[in-house]
Amino acid sequence: MYGFSxxxxxxxxxxxxxxxxxxxxxxxPRMFNIVGLPDKATEESxxxxxxxxxxxxxxxxxxxxxxxxxxLSPADLKKSGPLFDxxxxxxxxxxxxxxxxxxxxxxxxxxxxxxxxxLKVKGVLPLVQGAKxxxxxxxxxxxxxxxxxxIVSGIKVFPVENLxxxxxxxxxxxxxxxxxxxxxxxxxxxxxxxDDIVEQDFAxxxxxxxxxxxxxxxxxxxxxxxxxxxxxxxxxLLPRLSEQEVLEVTxxxxxxxxxxxxxxxxxxxxxxxxxxxxxxxxGGADASPGEISLAHRGVLFLxxxxxxxxxxxxxxxxxxxxxxxxxxxxxxxxxxxxxxILLVAMNPCPCGYYGSDKCICTPFQVGRYWxxxxxxxxxxxxxxxxxxxxxxxxxxxxxxxxxxxxxxxKENILNARALQAQRYKSPSRLNAGLSSRGIKYHxxxxxxxxxxxxxxxxxxxxxxxxxxxxLKVARTIADLDQKRDITDEHILEALSFRPKDLPY
Length: 504
What we know:
The protein is 38% helix and 18% strand.
């Protein structure tokens, strides 16, 4: 008796189709083997599937006793997780010869409970996308994953509640209706607006530049000056994600098991400073994405930046430069996209009151605090802003018309991004991502401007990377002003955001 079905597995964000073959030979002692590099969770499918079939009162090819073999191919791909349960059960039913649907065009995903219910699994969205790309016409998913899967158009998604219902559908006795396509709602509301923040005009200007050009930003200053509020307002300044970007971002979060709904707004990830290296960069036995990848197309906010482990801070170097991160584990190496804006906030010293009578830190403590931020990381941060305390008299003053400042800033950012999309002929390419060759092609300076920048670079002892970043920031400032050419004022403003008067 032979049967088969198809399932799939994520390797990073790539989909690998898995063929499930079932063979039963009568006679001899009762045996049940799963081959094809299964992990512990996949091996345990034997118990889950057998009991789910029996408790659903469905025929099971292992009765009477005999040798039952399930092969998961390709054999050299390590299979992990319980998402093959439903496909194995369908393979059993296929071996009975009663199934009337075309299994060549159907793909099955889901974990089984012992009662026969089909349970949610993670990573369904990229699996359905991969199934569509590989020519499958329909996919059977757990009912709890159906709305997530139905975001993908061009393939039928069937929500499966239990094994008995799936069996009746496959026999043609009853019908599981396809899930309606999920419409993506782009409505989003900001929690914090620029208008909610008192003063801090220099920091607000930096936020606009960072949002317009995709630049990395650092804010430092005493506790309670509004650094975290500025960070919360920042994400609402970013343009909404396109439909393609929604699928891209949601797929990463789906693989990590973080969501089953479309993510329509640029994500804000804010891990605690005690987060481990694997939590931030990604890893584990299945090389799952970390906070760096979950912030793709959005913002990675690291509060109390120097308090992070030095290894965690240095793990930012590759994704900040290349827009992706590669995770290598035994037998697997995967890459995740990691194009995000890095937003960091920090105190000037461990106690937070450097330079005032309140400070209790020794020079050694201050030096050790700042030494975690290496030169290569500082070079990759385009904008440095000192956030100073606000005068008490301003805290309770009523501002101008509500939301005016925030709306105007967002309008300017959208206009600046429109110029960049026109210039680079790509809606997702921003000034911050310009290569050295792109800088020479797209940024033109007069001889006087070159001398101005070169003199400033010598005084500030800038690295070539920092030099290029000033040019890119100046280009963004010109775009915010809707200017085709960069002026002296744009260069001087870009230079004003270089780190200065740092405690160490």
